[in-house]
Here is the input.
Amino acid sequence: MLKVVLLAVTTAATVLFFQNCGKIGSPADMASESSGGGGNNAAGGGNVPSIKVSQPADQTSDLGKTLTLPITVTAPADYSGTLKLNVLTPELAAIDKGQGITFSFSPGTLAFTGAGSQQTTLTVNVTTMAPSFSGSVFHIQAIDQANSRIVTVVDVKLTVNAVYEVDLNGQVTPGKAVPEKWSIATGAVIGFISHPEGLTFKAVNNDVEIHRVHSSGGPIQHEPNDLAPGMTYTQMVPAGTTAVTSQIYCHDHEGGGQSRTFQFNKPVVPVAPVGPSGNANATFTYLNSHVFQPMCVTCHSGAAAAAGVDLSSYAMVSQFVTSGNASVSTVYNVVAPPNPTMPKGGTPLTADLVKDMEDWINDGAANN
Here is the structure.
């Protein structure tokens, strides 16, 4: 058995238990590896791994915040190998066109030679250009690197609120135009996409002195009253406002030359689909329209999918992909020369399409 314990910590800890109870199948098996609501998976005819959640795994963040999720991975005495941790975001990608939310593991792989525990950290960075939404899911995978077998998938809900908060901390020399010790630097330019419900700006006085937020115009209004220590100035920025910029600084210690610029309702610039390979066809959209839909889904979709393999969507295809490594990815190996086994009874993929799939996976297998 392989047990992975995930501690997802913001204000309360979440502990997830992973267990690998079955054997690991080979890529050529094209065995079913799917993430359901409980996160269970099956491969190579082995037992279905189980996940137990001791507390809800939901995570919540405001714009501009970072979530740090510590992870403890524990292996038993009879396990030897390397686990790769991966995050899939098909639900978020459909919302987050500009990729305003990023995920990173440190470290991303953990090697075991018998019983022991190791630590890694998942950082979720929510930028100011992220959309707001409630309860969309991202998936944390634990993959046995030698076999490219998904040990388990954990589904974590993420909610992002259209709230941006800054901390005000002043200087000790009243009346002088010196920079405030804000949580954002003097001269910073902060941009927000359009949020359907509008956006809430909060300025929190964390100093022992009185402050007042000054605005040169735009949707954030000049604060009418002094902000006493511990108090918050809240300003609602209406959705679709035509005033797109506010210059903000504090009267007490700053002048207009030391303001911060807030820009609202900026257009989303989609992330370029071309990856490190430089292959413009190395995208899921291209492969879905040229390979998966016309060549695969007739057999591999729905409840009666052949061998239990569903390739009808990015979320399904990604279960048979090891991001960044085509050579150990099931969906690539069954179509790659010299002896492709898929499409079964059909014409093998052209060399160009095989290369497109290889480049897409090696570029990170994004939902692009």
User: Anything to note?
Assistant: DSSP finds five helices and 18 strands in the chain.
